[in-house]
Inverse folding.
């Protein structure tokens, strides 16, 4: 009995001595900037690519952890292909494809069946692509896939659902100026992409002009199996899934798609200061200019520069505008790398009316500062590590993997893009960052949009440049 007690006493004495020794040393918190970690090793998951007899491309990746199947589609369609006088057509088509039911199934029945199975089928059409998706339990795959295929191939575009979608869109347009941030984003895009389909926005007049026949014709023109890429993931067997896909889309005829010619956006810079008057206590500031697309050879250096200038809580914009000056809660800046067309460089913030001009001028100065000298080694290392280490989150699950592969093919990324991404980021130098800042940033030629009440501004807005007013009542 004494031996165990003696052993416990010895252990307690040793433990107490250890704690006392540690307590005698002053606590020194670890500095994350001086910490080192072993290199992150991550192999990009592979997905199988199959082309069906009708020309449809399919990416497949099995995952039997959960009894769920996900299928998403990218379709070669988009708002850039709609007539200017019917802007909004593509978006409404993307809505009514699903909400209007199919030729063989009224929308009420479709909703009921999907709800009963806990399945989902959704469709949409954006600026440069169409999208569709379905998710279901494996046991409900056949029924859900049948509905999904019908929505893609034989949407009914029922008149009452077309009218409903148009009315909802028009009501949204009537309220589009209620959100100052949305106003700033919309007006900046219109100015930078002026004269290009990407710069068009729907109006009550253009939406009112859209007919059911327009939607039917739009679908018939672009929705062809050889203009579709499917991303399939989840609990299925490869051969069985391919057979189900062939059966579901049997009879959908392959046909060449006649795409209208869409020119590239103008690279002309459009400097100017634009004011949208709105009686609000906080100003919305948006500034930018035309940017670059994915094929630009400097895209990796631009991404690193982006992070240093406006990405995350350590960026120059955040540190100065938010942390040091306390002018805003949210501030950032970034190149939206275009995939099919050149994107936009945009810097944005919201600040109280009384600091509007100060905040806008400071942001412009910070952007200009990127062009004056090399970034620090610490800034460069943090940016590259953050981009490289966050790369893996694009592959969080099998659905992300196959969807990523489908998008890369749809937008024509070069082979090896994913495999070489981290190495290309790691190669970026301080010299590269300074070079691309001088070449692609244009602080002297920014298009600046301010939404707010000029009577409350700290200085006249003209101190930023000649001011032109945006009449919000004319937007409709």
């Amino acid at each position: 009995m004494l031996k165990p007690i003696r052993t416990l006493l010895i252990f307690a004495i040793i433990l107490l001595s250890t704690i006392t020794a540690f307590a005698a040393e002053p606590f020194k918190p670890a500095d994350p900037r001086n910490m080192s970690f072993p290199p992150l090793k991550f192999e990009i998951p592979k997905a199988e690519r199959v082309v069906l007899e009708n020309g449809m491309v399919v990416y497949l990746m099995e995952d039997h952890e959960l009894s769920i199947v996900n299928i998403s589609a990218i379709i070669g369609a988009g708002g850039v292909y709609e007539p200017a006088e019917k802007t909004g057509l593509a978006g409404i088509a993307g809505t009514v494809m699903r909400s209007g039911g199919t030729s063989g199934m009224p929308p009420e029945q479709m909703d009921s069946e999907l709800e009963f199975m806990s399945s989902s089928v959704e469709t949409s059409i954006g600026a440069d692509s169409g999208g569709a998706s379905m998710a279901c339990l494996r046991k409900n795959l056949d029924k859900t896939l049948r509905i999904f295929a019908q929505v893609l191939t034989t949407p009914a575009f029922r008149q009452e659902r077309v009218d409903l979608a148009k009315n909802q869109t028009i009501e949204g347009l009537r309220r589009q100026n209620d959100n100052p941030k949305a106003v700033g984003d919309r007006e900046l895009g219109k100015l930078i992409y002026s004269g290009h389909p990407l710069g068009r926005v729907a109006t009550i007049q253009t939406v009112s002009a859209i007919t059911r026949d327009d939607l039917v014709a739009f679908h018939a023109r672009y929705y062809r199996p050889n203009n579709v890429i499917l991303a399939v993931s989840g609990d299925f067997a490869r051969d069985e899934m391919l057979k189900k896909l062939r059966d579901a889309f049997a009879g959908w005829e392959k046909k060449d798609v006649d795409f209208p010619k869409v020119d590239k956006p103008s690279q002309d810079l459009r400097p100017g200061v634009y004011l949208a008057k709105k009686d609000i206590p906080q100003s919305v500031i948006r500034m930018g200019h035309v940017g670059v697309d994915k094929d630009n050879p400097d895209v990796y250096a631009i991404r690193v520069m982006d992070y240093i200038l406006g990405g995350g809580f350590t960026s120059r914009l955040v540190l100065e505008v938010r942390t040091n000056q306390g002018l805003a809660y949210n501030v950032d800046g970034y190149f939206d790398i275009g995939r099919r067309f050149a994107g936009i460089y945009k810097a944005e913030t919201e600040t109280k009316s009384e600091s509007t001009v100060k905040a806008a001028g400071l942001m412009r100065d910070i952007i200009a500062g990127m062009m004056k000298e090399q970034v620090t080694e610490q800034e460069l290392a943090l940016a590259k590590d953050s981009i490289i280490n966050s790369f893996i989150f694009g592959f969080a699950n099998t659905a992300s993997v196959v969807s990523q592969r489908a998008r890369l093919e749809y937008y024509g990324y070069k082979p090896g893009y994913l495999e070489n991404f981290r190495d290309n980021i790691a190669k970026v130098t301080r010299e590269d960052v300074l070079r691309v800042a001088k070449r692609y940033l244009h602080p002297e030629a920014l298009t600046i949009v301010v939404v707010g009440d000029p009577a409350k501004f700290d200085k006249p807005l003209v101190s930023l440049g000649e001011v032109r007013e945006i009449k919000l009542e004319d937007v409709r």
The mean pLDDT is 92. The chain has 16 helices and twelve strands.
